[in-house]
Design goal:
This protein is about 70% helix and about 0% strand. It is mainly alpha-helical. It has one domain. The chain is elongated.
Length: about 80
Amino acid sequence: YPNRTQQNQLEQMFGNDRFVWNQMLAMMNERYQNNKALPFLGRFKLNYLLKPLKKEYPFLKNSDSSSLQVVNEFLT
């Protein structure tokens, strides 16, 4: 069983994953609404957008990058 510190880290990671999911989904919905002819963004293009998102929201740096990439993979 995880200790209290590990529980806090897991809660932070899950919260960050949920935040990235919502941000990417909102961006994709807005992109689609603005121009329906644009191609759908794949996993690699979404992963490319993680770096600017981490600069805008520094708390995302507390999460493991692979967990954020898995969120993008499930979003596609």
